[in-house]
Amino acid sequence: MIRTTLLVLTFAVCLGLHAEETSPVQLEWQSFRIFSTGSDDRHLLVFQKKKDPGPLLRLQAWDYGHQRIMNVAPMRGTSGELLYAQTFDRGESGGSITLTFFKASGDAVQPLPFEIARSGYNAPEVQSGSGPSRILIPCEAFYGKRVGPFSLTGVYVSGHGLSMIPRIAVMDQAQGKVNLKDVTFSTGVRNVLNGFLVQSEKALGEQSGKTWEGAEGLQLAAGLATYYYFKIKLGEEADALAKITRAGIKILDSDQEKSSPAIHAADWLKTSRADIVRFGDAEKLAE
User: Fold this and answer.
1) 8 Å CB contact between 96 and 117
2) Which of 18, 104, 265, 287 is 20 to 30 A off residue 151, Cα-Cα?
């Protein structure tokens, strides 16, 4: 559920806002002018009706607390325009990036009852073009999980291993409701996904013949599990295993006894296949 707090206000004074404290109009959307304003510990997204006379009257505002508002822009769902806000939450290890979403309903603005949050190392992204906007959501299904003998590093430690591969979603508008629809493995977005898979395969080739160990090794292993999962879902498991086997990569957990042999990456993936599919299928796109 969205963690922001909705404030419905009649006069700006109720919010403690004055005209000189607001930023210039960032965007005109539907029947609203949109402002953002705030201090170090309180950031607000403010909607003003275009038809209302006078400055900052009859406001609706969303309080993001200490999350800084980075971007506000329109996007398309499957049958109409929506709005998204991108916020940044400061913190150790890259912080986090969150997308929240709104729809116009008559003279009011309504938030959608979910948000997309990911590590600040790889932000969720909205790509607009012809047709519904695509939302690219970095897959983090295997980071911080125990897969076979390895406890994989969390994505917040040092980012994605190999390269980031996203799930792809659109906003599906049907029967008056808006839902996040996963279209990652649809043929219509395959060209988008292919670019990320090629990046992972290039990084895999650069690691050829190496033994991965320590925290960095486990981070790379999490990226490898991500790549393998996506290839499984695309029906290209044999191709993935052939490329990983050819790379000859081995993994050595720093917690293992020094005398323990490193494990071939392809063997680890094959024996952990059920867990990889289970973790991948269970990942939630939104909260």
Assistant:
1) yes
2) 287
Joined together, the tokens standing for residue 153 give: 């590093």
- Count CB atoms within 10 A of the CB of residue 110: 14
Write the pLDDT tens digit of every residue in 219-228: 999 999 999 9
Q: What is the pLDDT of residues 32-48, one digit of tens each?
A: 889 888 777 788 898 88
Q: How many residues does the chain have?
A: 287
Alpha helix ranges (H) inside the chain? 155-158, 190-206, 214-233, 237-247, 265-271, 273-282
Q: Check if the beta carbon of residue 115 is closer than 8 Å to that of residue 102.
A: no
Please name which of 232, 248, 246, 243 lies closest in space to residue 139, comparing C-alpha atoms.
Answer: 232
Burial annotation 257-272 (CB, 10 A radius, 16+ → b, else e): eeeeebbebbebbbeb
Give this prediction's pTM.
0.87
Give yes or no for a contact between 42 and 36, defined as CB atoms under 8 angstroms apart.
Answer: no
CB atoms closer than 10 angstroms to residue 107: 13
Q: 250-252 and 211-213 as β-strands: parallel, antiparallel, unpaired? A: parallel
Strand partners of residue 109: 104
Given a contact cutoff of 8 angstroms between Cβ atoms, the answer to whether 253 and 150 are in contact is yes
